[in-house]
């Protein structure tokens, strides 16, 4: 059994060259998968496909931006499921957050996640099946926590990372926010850590 992220070993943030300077094309095997599964480019980087959206819906009270006392009722699907793929030509998922917690399940390959909590704490861990090295194959990112990811070289999946993500309630762009540039990162983690993490913004 894999550890959860609380038990995951802290990993140093040392991206390899193809993370900093992406390849021009994915390896043929990953290109074939993108084609066969009809994965499309994600705005945050990488490729994805929504493979399920619950037909059942739920009504939720959502706080209004800027005024915590005010809320609106919104309707969401009960859950969504995606495949998400990082490849050497698109090796980074840039910092973003969702108001809802997101469950991640590793399918193939290796990668590294970097989480930035609202209090500025940074947690980074590797995802893979080598549990003895502290890698994890399931991880849950809490709502309101910024998340970024990048590829870790691996032979078993031709330098790719394929995961599944489940969101409850289901994904809606209204619940999703990209980090607003390096300034927001700096305000959370300070200038030194922000310089180290800038490639993920
Ligand atoms: N559409 C664009 N991005 C996403 C995502 O991350 N999840 C889902 N389910 N749909 C999306």
Report on the architecture of this protein.
By secondary structure, the chain is mainly β. 15% of the residues lie in helices and 41% in strands. The chain has 4 helices and 13 strands. A 6-stranded antiparallel β-sheet has the order 1-2-5-12-7-10, with no helix packed on it. It has a 5-stranded antiparallel β-sheet with strand order 9-8-11-6-13, with no helix packed on it. A two-stranded antiparallel sheet has the order 3-4. It is globular. The structure holds guanine. Guanine binds next to strand 5.
Q: Let me know the average pLDDT.
A: 95
Strands side by side in the biggest sheet: 1-2-5-12-7-10
Unreliable spans are: none
Count of helical stretches: 4
Q: List the helices and strands in order.
A: HHEEEEEEEEEEEEEHH
Q: Provide the β-strand percentage band.
A: 35-45%
What binds here, in terms of ligands, is: guanine
Overall shape: globular
Q: Give helix % range.
A: 10-25%
Nearest-angstrom radius of gyration? 17 Å
Return the structural class: mainly beta
Distance between the termini: 32 Å
Count of extended strands: 13
State the major sheet: 6 strands, antiparallel
Organism: Saccharomyces eubayanus
InterPro entries: Cupin_DUF985, RmlC-like_jellyroll, RmlC_Cupin_sf, YML079W-like
Protein name: DUF985 domain-containing protein
Biased composition (Basic and acidic residues): 52-65
